[in-house]
């Protein structure tokens, strides 16, 4: 039987497969103080977003499981009887919501609709830094991306090693850079 894959790992794999590899092999970055404080403050934000979206029910921090996906989402809203996960991020979205954020949200929506047996219209992401709420419709393309990524992660857990490349916009500020074997073939200029 195949194991269920967490939406957070799907997000991480799409950002950098090597980072997901480290997490999956027990070398995950520990939560920072900022992350811990953010989680403590998020209940209030969730209630405000749920009200603004007209949700009739809010479930805080439920574990969702279904369609080969499992994980704890910040909240599950019910809007016109349909489940819509809500993810809180401490960052800002940038000019467009990054694909790895969309895929994480879609993964929660896939799990929610399998668990509750009701079609999910998609998920929402609340970006605390800017106060924006972004709707992420559960499109066929996003659902396919989630399934494909989950399959790649299962391969990785079964022994396959991904082959990411050095990325100038990601690696210099990456927590894993000191241990990252995926960037060590790069010849440093002196
Ligand atoms: S250092 Fe670069 S390749 Fe390695 S995990 Fe970080 S982002 Fe990925």
From TrEMBL:
- Determine if Hydrolase is one of this entry's keywords: yes
**Pfam families reported in the protein's UniProt record:** Cas_Cas4
EC number(s)? 3.1.12.1
Q: Provide the GO biological process annotations.
A: defense response to virus
What InterPro entries does this protein map onto? Cas4_exonuclease, CRISPR-assoc_prot_Cas4, Dna2/Cas4_DUF83, PDDEXK-like_dom_sf
Which cofactors are named for this entry? Mg(2+); Mn(2+); iron-sulfur cluster; [4Fe-4S] cluster
Query: Member of which family?
Result: Belongs to the CRISPR-associated exonuclease Cas4 family.
* Protein name stated in the entry: CRISPR-associated exonuclease Cas4
Q: Which gene encodes it?
A: cas4
